[in-house]
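User: Hello, can you help with two protein structures?

Assistant: Certainly.
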Amino acid sequence: MLNCCTPWAPAVHGVKKAPRLGAPRRPIHDTQGEDSRVRARSILYLTGVLAGAPLAAQSAARPGIAVLNLRFDGEHANVLEAGDTAVVRAATSRLLAALRASDHVRLVDSGSVAVAVAAAEADGNPCDNACARAIARQLGARWVAKGTVSKTSNLVWILSAQLLDAATGRVVLADGYELKGDAARMAPAGAHVFAQRVERAIREHGAGPVDP
């Protein structure tokens, strides 16, 4: 049983991934006569052409989101261990994978985001919200997500994550999740819940323009 994600943002329980878009397939029955077979082939061809157009348009219209790698914060941990950063990497991987699989958002290449963050932090200052917005705009994304995984003890970790509108600077989501139990399992689970909330929030707010 998942003992995870007690948010002080609105609680999320039993969220299911939205079903893939697309009209249900209708069965095609055998017909008799050359004219019927020709009509059937024509229908199949046109169905393929028409079905491809909405999918292409949907892909092009999906709003972009840049995701910064989650950070590890062990300042208040009662003990630090070598595997702590691996927990954060696993949470980041789950967040990226969930958004990459989404039919409703377009995930900006994580390598490009990492390069941009490294360049922005070359002065020694961590990438704050203004920095994250600038990176998202630079990479053509309307949205940007960032967060921190904090360790307090081996059994209690905190995931704090935000979704920002890169165009306006508005914080659309500011979630906090208390992760209790095996951190290697619970941190990715919390990241997955956040990814679902990100997808839903972006769908509700729409794509919108991206200024250079």
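That covers the first. Now for the second protein you mentioned:
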Amino acid sequence: MSDNGMWIEWTIALRLLREGRSQSVLILIGIGVGVAVIVFITALIGGLQANIIDRTLGTQAHVRVEPPDEANRIARAPAGTLQLLHEDRRAQRLRSINNWRQVQAVLDGLDGIDAVSPVVSG
């Protein structure tokens, strides 16, 4: 009975396709154009996304060399005494790397580093 049920649906579908040939052709053209537009838009969005990522990451440094943070100096407790301590992180001031030319020369000589670009900020 399952084969006979499908036979009726196929018969009706083929009869309707034959009667309205121009309408069927227009529907198939519309489906093809719709699929082509979706594929085109998907490829366009993927390409734009890759381009934006390349432009964004290409202009920013991948590695930053900065001077070390200033740290608090804690006085040692005298021998035989117990020292309890609560330390807050020190406020950091803007500082530069004094020997930046030597640091740049060392970084230029390392393998795997394409470019070194000193930046002044502040």
